[in-house]
């Protein structure tokens, strides 16, 4: 097997997903035995213009980032969005609720008008270029990351769950957190995390994004029966839920 | 451990087969000839399928396309659609492929059809599983009366088995008719969907057993045409494709109301499907 | 086969003795709920539980299970789990469910993976002490159980009556220090408890005989209830995953980093999930939520009972799906009663 050339790029993010890759420990050696890492700012100084697989971490928040991403796309055979910022825009999309001028003022104060601080509403990677595979989560799951990479090396399409977190949560034998007064987003959020948060007693925040066909009727019905308002549910979804199709309503 | 566990084989354990021949038949269909490595029997009835297993990739259910009259090897034709089928396309001569089966208890009614007219209606890749029984009939030609095969293909580029179809169209003991859905300058034959051919085989349809296999959308229209031709449901057989994982009646994916496509089918008598609205 | 009485202290000592010798799984408190867990001491055992979060099927059909390992080009090897264990405190409805799974995994094709675990188990069933909020086992005829268990326990106050149901059960009981053949009085006490349970485990009352349900469903396929209920269905599969008789599974391969060796695993799946029937060409046979919603309730009380020629339905009335369904649509009794109301009993 030829070792495919892999490049890892970061945009607006905390780099925590890359850190998950660095933290692969023994598996990191397996990974670099099987791929040739040609660019990875967090781990090496070399750069490259040719790669088979581009891994994109972070969301797109500046006009120049869009151009950079488009260039990467033209150079990559396969492009992977890594982590919630890249797959769904992530926490960075919080700013899309405000005017960009206010956002800049809030963050940079007097310097807000300086030209290099230009900003725009946050986009997920697939709002700018075609994405071949998404590795969801904030942060990503290391096992899922290595599984996806192995699949790509074998020329196989990875099987990423289409079903909601409830599947993994119930398989683990957890009681439903709704019974304990938590507004858990499990029923509408894509599984694959192993229901990590609900298994530790924390509601699902939705970092893996919505499943393909979340039932909005179901959500409205449940809100009503649990005496919540639509706004209260939206407040629970705000961390990761902004600007994702099915729940814009 | 119980006595039965000691003697029962693992139903999920594939045997190994060797890829003897492969040939790309059109942009998506690959012909494969395989032979089983072990000396255990590999006897099948037309209509039965195997789970093709590629280590590390998974399994896919594929109906055997050759006739059991051909001994020592069997043939599959595999369309490239998912992980397993793509991996199969990349296999090389001499490679080992895992095989479970033959599977499926709902097979073509090889015995019941004896002494009767037999009519095959195929949509595109639906020819592949039907071919097993068609060739079986040809190899035991005296046992069956009139034989008609209707084949509808979406477009010319998807046509396959060219030389075999050519032989069929020149034999006088088989009525073979073909049509292409969309017009094409290079095609001089019939144009239109396969149902347009049905009125042309009025004679063969008389007291015939009729076998249908094709894409999911095809069945409804063919059945309507057969109803018009007054073919009773008891004489119509459908070869149904469903998602299958285990192939042995456990995993539940292929269920069609009361039936499991993998063990009750894949070939069903239409009259038995009265209670299975999900079938069509 | 013997029936003995053992006082509760002696029973606790007996359980502690077994724990020393082999793996014992019993019902324990988990927060304010209960679940099966491996016991370290008999003190953890809570035979007064109402219902466990998960049914006991996971000890025979684990949520994820390796079926095979392989070496590319060199073939496949079966993987089996051969550890004997005792499963302590299985309620009658869950025992009925296991009996059905036994039939399903041996009928047509014999599943050695399931059956080896099954044969390695000593199942100690126990009659219900505290009915759960959603139980309707009485409606389904599963409030008590007559067979399948190795031992059946009944709490008669200060002691347990232990009935052996198999040779394995005989051997189990023979080791119980302090157990004596049950007196007529004890047996009567047990009889009374079982007779009561047959009526009182009924917090959702089915309006027809359970055995009538296959007939009822014959006339209900196009009833509006499926669409109505499924309107708020999340297709989250919770009802499948907590069900003691759901056994559908998915199969997936994974390779090691050498790209030669790897394993094939099966994992629980659910017919309510989107994509359950999707073939490689992207065609999905049960695309609509209502179709999937209907399928589960047909499977429970028509398809599976007919498949295994059982008078007992495949919904055993444990009520777990009722509690697990966030939009509160999964309750089988509510749906079946609605059908009885609209279609009548013919």
What does this structure look like?
The complex is a heterotrimer of chains A (249), B (280) and C (346). Chain A has 249 residues and is of the alpha/beta class. Helices cover 36% and strands 11% of the residues of chain A. Chain A has ten helices and five strands; from the N terminus they run E-H-H-E-E-H-E-H-H-E-H-H-H-H-H. In chain A, helix 3 links the parallel strand 3 (51-57) and strand 4 (76-82). The longest helix of chain A is centred in the first third of the chain and has 13 residues, at 63-75. In chain B, the strands form three sheets. A seven-stranded mixed beta sheet of chain B has the order 10-9-8-7-11-12-15, with helices on both faces. A six-stranded antiparallel beta sheet of chain B has the order 4-3-6-1-2-5, with helices on one face. In chain B, helix 6 links the parallel strand 11 and strand 12. The mean pLDDT of chain B is 93. Chain C has helices at 8-21, 92-106, 112-120, 137-140, 167-174, 184-200, 213-218, 225-230, 238-241, 289-307, 320-324, 332-343, and strands at 3-7, 23-30, 33-38, 64-71, 75-78, 85-90, 121-126, 151-155, 159-164, 180-181, 249-255, 261-268. The longest helix of chain C is centred in the C-terminal third of the chain and has 19 residues, at 289-307. The radius of gyration of chain C is 21 Å and the shape is globular. The model of chain C has no long low-confidence stretch (mean pLDDT 95).
């Amino acid at each position: 097997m030829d070792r495919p050339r892999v490049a890892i790029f970061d945009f607006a993010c905390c780099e925590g997903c890359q850190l998950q890759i660095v933290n692969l420990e023994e598996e990191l050696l397996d990974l670099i035995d099987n791929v040739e890492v040609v660019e990875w700012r967090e781990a090496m100084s070399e750069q490259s213009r040719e790669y088979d697989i581009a891994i994109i971490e972070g969301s797109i928040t500046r006009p120049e980032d869009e151009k950079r991403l488009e260039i990467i796309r033209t150079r990559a055979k396969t492009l992977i969005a890594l982590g919630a910022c890249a797959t769904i825009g992530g926490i960075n999309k919080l700013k899309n609720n405000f005017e960009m001028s206010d956002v800049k003022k809030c963050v940079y104060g007097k310097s807000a008008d300086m030209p290099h601080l230009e900003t725009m509403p946050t986009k997920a990677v697939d709002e700018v270029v075609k994405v071949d595979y998404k590795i969801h989560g904030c942060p990503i799951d290391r096992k899922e990351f290595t599984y996806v990479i192995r699949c790509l090396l074998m020329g196989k399409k990875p099987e990423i769950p289409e079903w909601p977190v409830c599947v993994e949560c119930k398989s683990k034998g957890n009681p439903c957190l709704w019974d304990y007064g938590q507004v858990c987003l499990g029923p509408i959020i894509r599984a694959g995390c192993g229901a990590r948060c609900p298994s530790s007693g924390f509601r699902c925040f939705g970092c893996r994004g919505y499943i393909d066909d979340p039932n909005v009727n179901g959500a409205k019905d449940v809100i009503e029966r649990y005496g919540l308002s639509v706004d209260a549910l939206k407040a629970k979804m705000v961390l990761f839920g902004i600007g994702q199709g099915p729940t814009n309503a | 451990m119980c006595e039965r566990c000691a003697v029962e084989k693992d139903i999920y354990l594939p045997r190994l087969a060797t890829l003897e021949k492969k040939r790309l038949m059109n942009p998506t269909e690959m012909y494969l000839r395989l032979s089983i490595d072990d000396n255990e029997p590999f006897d099948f009835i037309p209509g039965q399928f195997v789970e093709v297993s590629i280590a590390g990739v998974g399994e896919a259910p594929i109906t055997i396309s050759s006739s059991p009259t051909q001994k020592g090897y069997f043939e599959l034709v595999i369309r490239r659609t998912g992980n397993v089928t793509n991996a199969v396309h990349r296999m090389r001569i001499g490679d080992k492929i895992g095989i479970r089966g033959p599977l499926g208890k709902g097979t073509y009614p090889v015995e019941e059809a004896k002494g009767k007219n037999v009519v095959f209606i195929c949509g595109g890749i639906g020819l592949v599983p039907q071919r097993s029984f068609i060739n079986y009939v040809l190899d035991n030609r005296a046992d069956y009366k009139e034989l008609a095969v209707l084949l509808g293909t979406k477009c010319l580029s998807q046509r396959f088995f060219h030389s075999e179809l050519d032989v069929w169209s020149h034999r006088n003991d088989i009525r073979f008719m073909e049509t292409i859905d969309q017009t094409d300058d290079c095609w001089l034959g019939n144009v239109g969907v396969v149902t347009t051919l049905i009125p042309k085989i009025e004679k063969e349809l008389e007291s015939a057993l009729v076998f249908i296999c094709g894409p999911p959308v095809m069945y409804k229209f063919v059945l309507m045409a057969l109803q018009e031709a007054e073919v009773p449901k008891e004489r119509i057989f459908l070869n149904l494709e469903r998602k299958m994982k285990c192939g042995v009646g456990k995993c539940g994916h292929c269920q069609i109301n009361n039936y499991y496509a993998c063990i009750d089918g894949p070939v069903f008598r239409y009259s038995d499907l009265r209670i299975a609205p999900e079938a069509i | 086969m013997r029936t003995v009485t053992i006082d509760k202290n002696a029973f606790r000592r007996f359980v502690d003795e077994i724990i020393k010798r082999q793996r014992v799984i019993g019902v324990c408190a988990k927060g304010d709920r209960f679940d099966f867990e491996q016991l370290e001491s008999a003190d953890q055992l809570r035979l007064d539980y109402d219902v466990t979060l998960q049914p006991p099927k996971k000890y025979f059909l684990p949520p994820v299970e390796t079926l095979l390992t392989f070496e590319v080009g060199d073939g496949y090897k079966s993987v089996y789990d051969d550890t004997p264990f005792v499963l302590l405190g299985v309620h009658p409805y869950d025992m009925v469910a296991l009996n059905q799974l036994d039939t399903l995994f041996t009928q047509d094709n014999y599943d050695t993976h399931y059956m080896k675990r099954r044969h390695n188990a000593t199942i100690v069933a126990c009659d219900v002490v505290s009915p759960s909020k959603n139980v309707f086992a009485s409606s389904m005829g599963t409030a008590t159980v007559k067979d399948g268990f190795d031992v059946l326990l009944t709490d008669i106050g200060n002691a347990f009556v232990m009935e052996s149901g198999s040779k394995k059960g005989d051997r189990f009981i023979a080791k119980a220090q302090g157990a004596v053949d049950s007196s007529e009085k004890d047996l009567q006490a047990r009889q009374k408890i079982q007779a009561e349970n047959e009526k009182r485990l009924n917090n959702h009352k089915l309006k027809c005989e359970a055995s009538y349900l296959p007939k009822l469903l014959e006339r209900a396929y196009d009833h509006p209830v499926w669409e109505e209920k499924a309107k708020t269905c999340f297709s989250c599969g919770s009802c499948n995953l907590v069900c003691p008789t759901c056994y559908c599974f998915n199969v997936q391969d994974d390779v090691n980093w050498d790209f030669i060796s790897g394993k094939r695993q099966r994992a629980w799946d659910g017919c309510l999930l989107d994509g359950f029937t999707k073939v490689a060409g992207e065609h999905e046979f049960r695309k609509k939520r209502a179709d999937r919603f209907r399928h589960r309730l047909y499977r429970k009380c028509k398809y599976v009972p007919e498949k295994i020629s059982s008078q007992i339905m495949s919904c055993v009335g444990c009520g777990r799906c009722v509690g697990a369904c966030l939009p509160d649509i999964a309750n089988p009794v509510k749906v079946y009663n609605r059908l009885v109301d609209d279609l009548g009993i013919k």
